[in-house]
Amino acid sequence: MNADRPYARSQRLALVFRAAGTRFAVPAAAVLEVAAAPAPGQQAATRAGLPVEDFSLLLGEPACSGPEVMTLVIDCAPPRALLVDGVGEVVDLVTAPFYRLPAGTAARSLSLIRGAVMHADNLVLELIPEALAGLKPVERSGFPPVEEARPQAKPEKALLFQAGGELFGVALPLVTGVLRATGRCYVPLSPPGHSGLVLHERALLPIYDLGRLSGRPATEGELAVVLDVAGSTVGAAASQVFGVVEGFAAEPLPERGGVRWRLKDGRKVFFPDLERWFPSVR
After folding, report:
1. Model pTM above 0.85
2. Which whole-number Å values give the CA distances from 91 to 15, 76, 97, in the listed order?
3. How far apart are CA 273 and CA 148, in angstroms?
4. Cis amide bond preceding 78, omega within 30
């Protein structure tokens, strides 16, 4: 064996690009061409004889825009020319940790997204090139109506947090922690209210925004309350966490989707029926 010869190892080369508000990786062998975007206003633009299609619009997200927009020609039998927000580098994913998408998150995207890999401290969604061949434009899903809540026992202790301008409460036995959910990886085609994935305890944790699910503004901030709901671990986005409280009035105020309990100081706290709210546990 020649000691001066570098050790050869297998490679899994992929091109990283941005579209639909997130990062994707596609096998480098499937990329036929990386080219400039069509000129602004150009009608029926083509590349390599193929119509240029906006990848973000195909996924039901806002159209690609910005100074770094590029065209990728992907070999997916037949090939497609896709407009993307920007193209990064070719990377070797052979040693990159791979994670399956949580079941609820992946419901509409399993045929398109193989899973997520960690690269340069960022989660990147790994595409299945062959699935691009049959991809058709997808409309964004509306927020489903919240079902009537079931009766809830009065909580002895609860964690209070704010989301979408609303004061929420969750019975303490359901809370497993609070984390700073920075660098969330958004997943197109995910259920309404989904605000991204984060790596938590060697698995992907889906974060949902109870504010948006209840028709309120999106929750600002980077906090998330980690919950165990019917055996599934999910996160609830929070702009502020107030801590554990106890001492609730005896009479609840039923509302659609949950009940509102009153604290000793008069504040009213909404307790959602979590199994009805989180798509990943339905």
Report:
1. yes
2. 6, 20, 13
3. 9
4. yes
